[in-house]
Amino acid sequence: MSTYSARLAALREQLARDRLDGFVVPLTDEHMSEYVGEYAQRLAWLTGFQGSAGTAVVLPQEAAIFTDGRYTLQVREQVSAEDWQFVGVPATSVATWLGAHAAEGGRIGYDPWLHTSAWVAEASRTLAERGAALVPVDTNPVDSVWPDHPAPSNARLVVQDDAVAGASSAEKRALIADWLAERKADAVVLSALDSIAWVLNVRGRDVEHTPVALAYAVVDADGTAELFVAPEKIDDAVRQHLGNAVRLRDRADFASALAGFAGKRVAADPERAVAAIFDSLKAGGATVLPLRDPAVLAKATKNPAEIAGHRAASARDGAALARFLRWAETALPAGGETELSAAARLQAFREATGVWLDSSFDTISATGAHGASPHYKVTEESNAPIEPGQLYLVDSGGQYRDGTTDVTRVIPVGTPSEEMRDRFTRVLKGHIALATAIFPPGTTGGQLDGFARRPLWEAGLDYAHGTGHGVGAYLSVHEGPQRIAQPFYPGGGPSEPLRAGMILSNEPGYYKAGEYGIRIENLILVEPREIAGGEQAMLGFETLTFCPIERALIVAEMLSPAERAWLDAYHARVVAVLAPQMDEAERAWLTAKCAPIA
Fold first, then answer.
1. Which of 11, 195, 287, 482 is the most exposed place for a label (fewest CB within 10 A)?
2. Strand 364-367 and strand 403-404: pairing?
3. What 3-state DSSP class applies to 191?
4. Would you tell me which CATH number, out of the four given (3.40.30.10, 3.40.50.720, 3.40.350.10, 1.10.10.10), belongs to the domain 158-299?
5. pLDDT at position 398, please?
């Protein structure tokens, strides 16, 4: 098992023992999470791929790994082309590929705790047209051949204070009870980890970078709930916080408990609950209502306490990043720094706040050609020196008790080329266009996505990812349902109307394969806008992230007067927010970096 080729061979041997002619390996867990615990990193263990989204299919004589445009370069660097075919999604889906490559009469295995019912239905249909069958497994064959397979985390839950959450768990459960009553439902199954954390005002340490705990919950029509969680993860403080209205049960009992809803109307989210949950409820005699998790929209629409917390977290995080940029301005051109050493220095500045709890994702510390991979993850093997003539891109964020941050900045190491400056300025123009957008209620993020792309489109350029994702309140850095993306871009799909209180990222970019990458990312808050003389209510964005945007990369002549005014006003606000946290030398540097654009 010392090589990925050996792991692939071992899995094929296990499939033969299981009388399977193939198996599908997604990068998710039993909760359809984007970021997963070590025990669920089956795709990485099998292939070496370190991205945060992907799927593999293993057949007896061929194997394929499916990734979207964010990982086109990365997957080829990390996964052997001798063992794996590289397939781009959504151009080709896993189900479509299976329908073309599975053997006639073949039995293709899948783990029903790792796929949605919709995926199972699609794959079953395409395989049936091939004369093959999709077969659920009781034991995941990857786990069977994974020596020293990590156990799920046993870290204890912690209480998220009501004052920071802005509403008590009892209040949130009462809202869900009202939602159930409107639908004449008896209960709702919550399987998304961030929904459970939000509803119960608890957090955890089971998934790196995302403060959630491995658990399931069922909320009943009377506002009480059952929390299925390993007993060793609960202490007296959490037990007291949950109170008598939340009954504690072992997580191991969840599957069997689903059989206890005979004759009941039970809601479950078809996008977030795995096929096994639907199958078990139906087998137990329940009437299953395929409805969106009622916590999703409520969680996405931040209350005043959550917004205030994010502002505080963003201000301290911005100061930490600004200190890093000040250090980098001198240290990087001097030589001797690498992607890993720079990322470690940035983390040290965040740790110095005294309240930093974790990164909100693996820092994208990318110099030169690595910057052209939008979701590049530096490793000991890929770690590159930061050298003159390169652009250094750093996309990072922090987890604080009062908020989750995500911000990207680009630093020129030495003198940037005119092409780099042109591309950076176009990305900045798109960023400003989105930041200043005014739109009516009911507008979706997909309708706004083109605002950020137009300056690039005008030069025959584009980027292969969405422009914005939702962000949680000391929860997941990638939160739905809000997004700013066209359906065909990664992060796209059905678009949600934007509502006041939603927090999203604003992150257009440009990537030149083999040379450099550019992205400018701030977080933005949807807020009401009053328009003088207007005839209807409107919405707009408040920028929440404050940190200098690199002046040396801006071609001032390409900016319109309105764009210059926005940039100058933004930088003035950066000084106002960050300077009180800085010493005299830092304030002098910040003031110079944020001077009006020439």
1. 287
2. unpaired
3. coil
4. 3.40.350.10
5. 98
Identify the CATH number of the domain defined by range 304-589: 3.90.230.10
Distance from C-alpha of 197 to C-alpha of 405, rounded to nearest angstrom: 18
Token reading at 126: 């395409």
pLDDT of residue 372: 95
Sign of CA dihedral 221, 225, 228, 229: positive
Q: What is the pLDDT of residue 492?
A: 54
What residue spans in the chain does CATH classification 3.90.230.10 cover? 304-589
pLDDT tens string 21-64: 999 999 999 999 999 999 999 999 999 999 889 999 999 999 99
Cβ count within 10 A of residue 406: 24
Cα 63 to Cα 41, 83, 262, 439, 486: the distances in Å are 18, 7, 42, 46, 30
> What distance in Å separates the CA atoms of residue 72 and residue 583, rounded to the nearest whole number?
43
Q: Three-state SS across 204-223?
A: CCCECCECCCCCEEEEECCC
Reduce the secondary structure of 525-590 to three states and give it as a string.
Answer: EEEEECCCCCCCCEEEEEECCCCCCCHHHCCHHHCCHHHHHHHHHHHHHHHHHHHHHCCHHHHHHH
The pLDDT score that the predictor gives to residue 493 is 55
DSSP-assigned letter for residue 586: H
Q: Which of 67, 43, 68, 57 is nearest to 126 (CA)?
A: 57
C-alpha–C-alpha distance, residues 380 and 384, integer Å? 9
Q: What is the model's pLDDT at position 488?
A: 66
CATH of region 4-145, choose from 3.40.190.10, 3.40.350.10, 2.40.10.340, 2.40.160.10: 3.40.350.10
CA–CA separation, 262 vs 259, rounded Å?
7
C-alpha torsion sign, points 247, 250, 254, 260:
negative
**CB-facing half-sphere around the CA of 448: CA atoms within 13 A:** 34
Q: Are 191 and 253 in contact (CB under 8 A)?
A: no
Q: Can you tell me whether residue 329 is helix, strand or coil? A: helix
At 424 the pLDDT is 98
Q: Which two tokens stand for residue 473?
A: 């309140």
pLDDT of residue 302: 98
The predicted model scores a pTM of: 0.94
Beta bridge partners of 412: 391
Q: What is the distance between the alpha carbons of residues 525 and 544, in angstroms, rounded to a whole number?
A: 7
Give pLDDT < 70 ranges for the chain: 1, 488-494
Instruction: Read off the tokens for 358.
Output: 């974790």
One DSSP character per residue, 260-302 reads: G-TT-EEEE-TTTS-HHHHHHHHHTTPEEEE---THHHHHHB-
Checking 486-489 for CB contacts under 8 A at 24+ apart, the result is 486/446, 486/449, 486/450, 487/446, 488/90, 489/69, 489/449, 489/464, 489/465
Q: Would you state the structure tokens that stand for residue 50, as one six-digit string?
A: 């370190």
State the Cα–Cα distance between residues 591 and 51, nearest whole angstrom: 38
Q: What are phi and psi of 536, to 5 degrees?
A: -155, 160
Q: What is the DSSP letter of 502?
A: B
Read off the pLDDT of residues 142-171 as tens digits, 9 standing for 90 and up: 999 999 999 999 999 999 999 999 999 999
CA-based angle 132:136:141, to the nearest 5?
105
Strand partners, 468: 484
